[in-house]
Amino acid sequence: MTSITRDRPMEIDDSLFFQDPIPDPGSLQVMVGPEALHACKSRRLAVGESLYLTDGKGKVALARIEDRSPRCDSLTVMIEETVVNPMPSPRLVLASAIPKGDRQSVMLGMAVQLGMNDYIPLECDRSAVQYSDRMSHRWRKVILESMKQCRQTHMPAIRNARTLEHLLDASGELVAKRSRVLVVGDPQGDCAGVDDCADWARLEEMILIVGPEGGFSSAEKQLLDSEKVLKLRLSDQILRTETAAISLCAAAYQYFFAKR
After folding, report:
1. How far apart are CA 205 and CA 18, in angstroms?
2. Is 151 left (phi over 0), alpha (psi -120 to 50) or beta?
3. How many Å apart are CA 206 and CA 211, to the nearest integer?
4. Domain span holding position 48
5. Of residues 205, 202, 181, the one with CA closest to residue 193
6. CA–CA separation, 95 vs 170, rounded Å?
7. At 201, is the secondary structure helix, strand, or coil?
8. Alpha-carbon span 140 to 129, nearest angstrom
9. Which helix (H) or strand (E) holds 54?
10. Which residues pair with 93 in a beta bridge?
11. 99 and 24 fall within a common domain
12. Closest of 233, 246, 118 to residue 180, by C-alpha
């Protein structure tokens, strides 16, 4: 494993673990709990081997294993180098209705892998699942695991739940300044006007809007039509919420971010 720099992305065989806080280079850090267990048992890392640590806020450390407990419940590492990666800009924010059961976890995990930086639970008129605070704990675990798997160093945040009306109202001034872009999946859409709606030099956020499987209500459709919301065609078929969300994240990168 070579030294870390902002210009060198982690390789597929590099191991990334969560540790907050991360001390300065030359310090010893004891890792305990699930992260230590994962390093010892799942990754089978031995004394003398190297790994990466992140605090989920952009800081990354290259560390070397100095000692490990026989039961693999603790791991002592020496911090060799650290670097702080800047916050992603513009940020890709997913605002979606909550699908039923485990499909929410699948959606969040895949969205993180596709570059989602924040998530907003969207409360729609036809939502089958209503948001509650107890959901956030499970979601954060899913997001953390996916963040480590895809080598992200900024942990996506779960923002406060919003209705569509509230989301659009709160976005009005930023959309007018062209520092925020709103995109929704729509069978009739093409997003041809994206360059007219965004100032790419100062764009702060792109918010991807996904409704429930029952679709947006008539009132919500009127809101989407009346605001500066770009419409992107994803498929000729009707998609489930998590499928639409994942497709929209991938399309946002392909059509917008990769070209900038």
Report:
1. 26
2. left
3. 16
4. 16-84
5. 181
6. 13
7. coil
8. 18
9. strand 50-54
10. 118, 207
11. no
12. 118
Helices 103-113/135-149 angle, 10° precision: 40
Is 8 domain-assigned? Answer: no
Q: How many domains does the chain have?
A: 2
| Tokens 């709160």, located at residue | 170
Give me the residue label for tokens 């070397």. 64
pTM score of the predicted model: 0.91
Per-residue pLDDT of the chain (260 residues; tens, 9 = 90+): 555 655 556 776 788 999 999 999 999 999 999 999 999 999 999 999 999 999 999 999 999 999 999 999 999 999 999 999 999 989 999 999 999 999 999 999 999 999 999 999 999 999 999 999 999 999 999 999 999 999 999 999 999 999 999 999 999 888 877 788 899 988 877 765 555 566 777 789 999 999 999 899 999 999 998 778 888 888 888 899 999 999 999 988 887 776 55
* Cα-based distances in Å from 8 to 4, 152, 183, 194, 230: 6, 13, 32, 31, 35
Cβ atoms 56, 153 nearer than 8 A: yes
**The two three-digit tokens of residue 24, written as one number:** 């300065």
